[in-house]
Design goal:
Elements (H helix, E strand, L loop, with lengths): L1 E9 L5 E10 L4 E5 L6 H9 L6 E6 L2 E2 L8 H6 L1 E4 L11 H12 L3 H14 L15 H13 L5 E5 L7 H16 L3 E5 L3 H5 L4 E6 L2 E7 H5 L2
Parallel strand pairs: 3-8, 3-9, 6-7, 7-8
Antiparallel strand pairs: 1-2, 1-4, 4-5, 9-10
Bound molecules: adenosine-5'-diphosphate (ADP) (2 copies).
């Protein structure tokens, strides 16, 4: 689903944020991406989203080389990608339903389709009965689930999450992880950027570790800690 082939990113100020990073993420796999602040996690996600472009190397999404994509391809690319943010970036001047519907409205779906898909997504995250509330009325964990429903409402094959459990306690983090695992089980490639090592340690998923822009580890969590 995603392939990085010797990808380097140097920002205009000369900062090397990524150096010759290579890995492949297949469909149906959940992968953690970790590393200290400044290691290059956000840059890696931005290359997948085409918010930034690589200086060297190639990024493939769904077997398509993004180097061959112009700006007019970006909307089509982003339709394949669901993005979950730490602060979930919900709009507090509209309902839960309207927040989740946003990507479908932008993509030009019909009203009937929007209603059906939004309710299916809210059902998946267990929030169907809250569709008419303003998200400000919801708990932090519920708000994050609204953010996840919005990310998956158009059934993207790829789900990216940037510190999705950053503001949540362990029990709520587990709920969110259960959802991500459900999506992986039905074939979605899920990439979770986090520096929450206790979260990573609780699951036995593939782990990519960046240090100063280099991929220093690619394997399961047990390998890394020698257990
Ligand atoms: P992380 O998400 O792991 O904290 P980032 O990808 O945000 O890491 O940053 C990697 C490195 O690149 C850091 O040193 C950061 O300061 C630098 N960086 C990130 N964005 C830019 C930018 N737009 N211009 C210059 N340097 C940047
Ligand atoms: P995040 O945690 O999302 O990476 P940051 O605070 O690191 O947020 O960065 C916020 C914005 O500033 C991002 O768009 C990032 O690319 C940019 N940025 C980060 N570091 C630098 C830097 N050293 N110089 C210029 N821009 C940077």
């Amino acid at each position: 689903m995603i392939q990085f082939d010797r990808v380097s990113k140097r920002y205009p100020n000369g900062k090397d944020a990524l150096s010759k990073v290579s890995f492949t993420l297949p469909a149906g796999q959940l992968t953690f991406l970790t590393g200290h602040s400044g290691a290059g996690k956000s840059t890696l996600l931005k290359l997948i989203m085409m918010i930034e472009r690589p200086t060297q190397g190639q990024v493939f999404v769904d077997n398509q080389n993004l180097n061959g994509f112009g700006n007019r391809h970006i909307p089509l690319l982003r339709r394949k990608i669901g993005m979950v943010h730490q602060n979930h970036q919900l709009l507090f001047d509209r309902s839960v339903f309207e927040n989740v519907a946003l990507p479908l409205i932008i993509a030009g779906y019909s009203r009937a389709d929007i209603g059906k898909r939004v309710r299916a997504a809210l059902d998946k995250v267990g929030l169907l009965e809250k569709e008419n509330l303003n998200p400000i009325m919801l708990s932090g964990g519920e708000q994050q689930r609204v953010g996840i429903a919005r990310a998956v409402v158009n059934k993207p094959p790829l789900l990216l999450a940037d510190e999705p459990t950053g503001n949540l306690d362990p029990a709520l983090s587990e709920e969110i992880m259960d959802l991500f695992q459900d999506f992986a089980r039905v074939g979605v490639a899920v990439l979770i950027a986090t520096h929450d090592l206790s979260l990573i340690a609780r699951y036995n998923h593939r782990l990519l570790t960046l240090r100063e822009g280099r991929l220093i580890h690619d394997g399961d969590e047990g390998e890394m800690h020698g257990s």
